[in-house]
Every structure is written in structure tokens, then in C-alpha cells.
What we know:
Elements: E1 2-6, H1 13-26, E2 31-35, H2 41-51, H3 59-83, E3 87-91, H4 94-104, H5 110-121, E4 128-133, H6 136-143, H7 156-172, E5 177-181, H8 186-203
Parallel strand pairs: 1-3, 1-4, 2-3, 4-5
Helix pairs in contact: 1-8, 2-3, 4-5, 4-7
The structure holds thymidine-5'-diphosphate.
Amino acid sequence: MLISFEGIDGSGKTTQARLLAERLEAAGYRTLLVREPGGTELSERIRDLLLDASLDIEPLAELLLFAAARRQLVMRRIRPALEAGYIVLCDRFYDSTTAYQGGGRALKDLAWLQNFNLWVTENLVPHRTYWLDVPVDVALARRAQLYPDRMEQADPAFYERVRNTYARLAQEEPERILRLDATAEVATVHAEIWADVQQHLAAGTRFERGGFSTEKSC
Ligand code: TYD
């Protein structure tokens, strides 16, 4: 089972991904938590480049770097873990590319990016995606104390476009993407996620520990 966490910077998705990983491990599930960009040595090095505020990165080059980091992570860690029966939690996955490079940067249209994303992952689609939705001003206020990385130097209008793109994706794929009100307390959001995960785990043998695939044929 592959679960991704999405949202604008400051939405609290990293906290939620960690809490779910701990909860699953405590319940006896073999769990792998990875972040994007990152999760392999190559992908972490690409992450350093992408977030380096002193670097000028041209928008298409940026897209390709995110894609390269994801490709390496999928092939070297996520697929092997899924095949070994792990529940894999991704702190961001390809919806970030559609939302940030597609919506935020307006680099390519969304359909083009969605196809591109599936090409990069060879049709590996998250089984469930939690979109932690928070108004842009709330997210920016949460992050005000932190030193911004290269991606976080964008203005509020950029984040509005990213958020709107998440909203569109959630509308397009309601069976996969669940919107959560991320202005709520951490414990409340976690409880919603845990309840949803449990439902999926209980729903049938295809979500048993091991032996299922999140691949979609196309
Ligand atoms: P993240 O790890 O959430 O940042 P932080 O550790 O500071 O909370 O994500 C790094 C940044 O990269 C974030 O601003 C979102 C951006 N991003 C994209 O623009 N496209 C992508 O495909 C991904 C995965 C991330």
C-alpha cells in the first residue's frame, strides 16, 4: 500500500506522515517512510540542489530534477518495499509536481504533467493521498520563523495557485485524494487519517501485509 501526503509548505504533512508511520509500526505493520525530493543518496543530493537558495534553476530543469529524484526513489526503494509487503508512506509524491510546477510555475498544463508523472513512476499511483489543506496565510504564518529555502521564496499568489491545483486534483480523483482540514489540531487530523487508514486496511485482503500492488495498468 502506497500512501502519499500532500499540501503547501506549512500544512503539517511531515508531522502527519511521521505520526502515521509510528502508529502503523506500533500496530505491527512493516512501514517505510520516505520524503520527496529525497529518500535515496542520489535523491537527497538532488534535494540539496533544488532547495539551495543560492542557485538559479530554470523551470524545466527544476521539473526534471524533481522527476529524477522521484525516479530513483521509486525504482530503488519504493517498489522493492511494496514488493516486500511494506506500507510505504511518502511525504510528497507526484501531485507535488503537478501542483508546484504545473499550478505554481504554470510550466506545463496539468494533463501533460500527469502523463509525465506516470511515465516517470511507470504508473505507480498512490493508493491513498492525504491532502492537508490550509489557507495560504495560515501556512505562511506557520513558516514565518523559518529561513526559506529556494522553493519557499515564492510569493503568496504562487501558493494560491498550488493550493488551487491540489483542489482541482482532489476533485478529479476523489476516490484517491482525501482533503483534510489542516487548520485543525494535529491530533484531530491524525485521528481522521488513522480512521481512514484502518478502514482501508480492514476493507479487504488486497491491503493485507504484503502481496498487493498499487500499480494501475493503462
Ligand atoms: P518539503 O520537503 O515539503 O519542504 P520542507 O522540508 O521545507 O517542509 O518540499 C520541498 C519543496 O519542494 C517544497 O517547497 C515543495 C517543492 N516540491 C516541488 O516543487 N515539486 C515536487 O515535485 C516536489 C516533490 C516538491
